[in-house]
């Protein structure tokens, strides 16, 4: 059993595809262990994406992530980290496989609808950024 952090980014929430996205996780054997809808400030988005602070797209990415509400979730299941990333598809929707969330919903490499932790270490940091132990069920 593994846990990972999933985010439905502002573009996904705006498009009203929250249910579609959660349904894909559930159909693939992942379970929602915690969930909330929140609106990040620019500073909170910068803190979440601190690993990307030297990247040229850091400012634009954190503007995007704070432009509207997001849905954050802890997903739980066997190989949850890898499975979530498989369901999401490649970062750039142009390279994403058919049937993935990003292929079906993402606009471009930045506005790509979903986030998923990429390692156990980042899952640990990212889950604790949004949820306390008491909120994960
Ligand atoms: P992920 O793990 O697939 O989300 O990809 P990364 O960790 O590499 O990047 C984090 C997020 O930054 C991505 O999901 C995109 O929203 C954004 N991003 C990644 N690469 C680029 C890029 O080349 N340009 C822009 N504008 N945004 C990017």
UniProtKB/TrEMBL annotation:
<dbReference type="Pfam" id="PF00334">
    <property type="entry name" value="NDK"/>
</dbReference>
<keyword id="KW-0597">Phosphoprotein</keyword>
<keyword id="KW-0460">Magnesium</keyword>
<dbReference type="InterPro" id="IPR001564">
    <property type="entry name" value="Nucleoside_diP_kinase"/>
</dbReference>
<keyword id="KW-0963">Cytoplasm</keyword>
<keyword id="KW-0479">Metal-binding</keyword>
<dbReference type="GO" id="GO:0006228">
    <property type="term" value="P:UTP biosynthetic process"/>
</dbReference>
<dbReference type="GO" id="GO:0004550">
    <property type="term" value="F:nucleoside diphosphate kinase activity"/>
</dbReference>
<comment type="similarity">
    <text>Belongs to the NDK family.</text>
</comment>
<comment type="function">
    <text>Major role in the synthesis of nucleoside triphosphates other than ATP. The ATP gamma phosphate is transferred to the NDP beta phosphate via a ping-pong mechanism, using a phosphorylated active-site intermediate.</text>
</comment>
<feature type="binding site">
    <location>
        <position position="112"/>
    </location>
    <ligand>
        <name>ATP</name>
    </ligand>
</feature>
<feature type="domain" description="Nucleoside diphosphate kinase-like">
    <location>
        <begin position="1"/>
        <end position="137"/>
    </location>
</feature>
<keyword id="KW-0418">Kinase</keyword>
<dbReference type="GO" id="GO:0005737">
    <property type="term" value="C:cytoplasm"/>
</dbReference>
<keyword id="KW-0067">ATP-binding</keyword>
<feature type="binding site">
    <location>
        <position position="85"/>
    </location>
    <ligand>
        <name>ATP</name>
    </ligand>
</feature>
<keyword id="KW-0808">Transferase</keyword>
<keyword id="KW-0546">Nucleotide metabolism</keyword>
<dbReference type="InterPro" id="IPR034907">
    <property type="entry name" value="NDK-like_dom"/>
</dbReference>
<feature type="binding site">
    <location>
        <position position="91"/>
    </location>
    <ligand>
        <name>ATP</name>
    </ligand>
</feature>
<keyword id="KW-0547">Nucleotide-binding</keyword>
<protein>
    <recommendedName>
        <fullName>Nucleoside diphosphate kinase</fullName>
        <ecNumber>2.7.4.6</ecNumber>
    </recommendedName>
</protein>
<dbReference type="GO" id="GO:0046872">
    <property type="term" value="F:metal ion binding"/>
</dbReference>
<dbReference type="GO" id="GO:0006183">
    <property type="term" value="P:GTP biosynthetic process"/>
</dbReference>
<dbReference type="InterPro" id="IPR036850">
    <property type="entry name" value="NDK-like_dom_sf"/>
</dbReference>
<dbReference type="GO" id="GO:0005524">
    <property type="term" value="F:ATP binding"/>
</dbReference>
<feature type="binding site">
    <location>
        <position position="57"/>
    </location>
    <ligand>
        <name>ATP</name>
    </ligand>
</feature>
<feature type="binding site">
    <location>
        <position position="9"/>
    </location>
    <ligand>
        <name>ATP</name>
    </ligand>
</feature>
<dbReference type="GO" id="GO:0006241">
    <property type="term" value="P:CTP biosynthetic process"/>
</dbReference>
<feature type="active site" description="Pros-phosphohistidine intermediate">
    <location>
        <position position="115"/>
    </location>
</feature>
<feature type="binding site">
    <location>
        <position position="102"/>
    </location>
    <ligand>
        <name>ATP</name>
    </ligand>
</feature>
<dbReference type="InterPro" id="IPR023005">
    <property type="entry name" value="Nucleoside_diP_kinase_AS"/>
</dbReference>
<comment type="subunit">
    <text>Homotetramer.</text>
</comment>
């Amino acid at each position: 059993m593994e846990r990972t952090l999933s985010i439905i980014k502002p573009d996904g929430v705006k498009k009203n595809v929250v249910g579609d996205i959660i349904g894909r996780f559930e159909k693939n054997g992942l379970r929602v262990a915690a969930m909330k809808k929140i609106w990040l400030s620019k500073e909170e988005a910068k803190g979440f994406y601190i690993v990307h602070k030297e990247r040229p797209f850091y400012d634009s990415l954190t503007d995007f992530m704070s432009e509207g509400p997001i849905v954050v979730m802890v997903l739980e299941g066997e190989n949850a980290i890898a499975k979530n990333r498989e369901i999401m598809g490649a970062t750039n929707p142009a390279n994403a496989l058919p049937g993935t969330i990003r292929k079906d919903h993402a606009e471009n490499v930045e506005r790509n609808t979903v986030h998923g932790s990429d390692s156990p270490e980042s899952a640990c940091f990212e889950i604790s950024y949004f949820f306390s132990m008491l909120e994960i069920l």
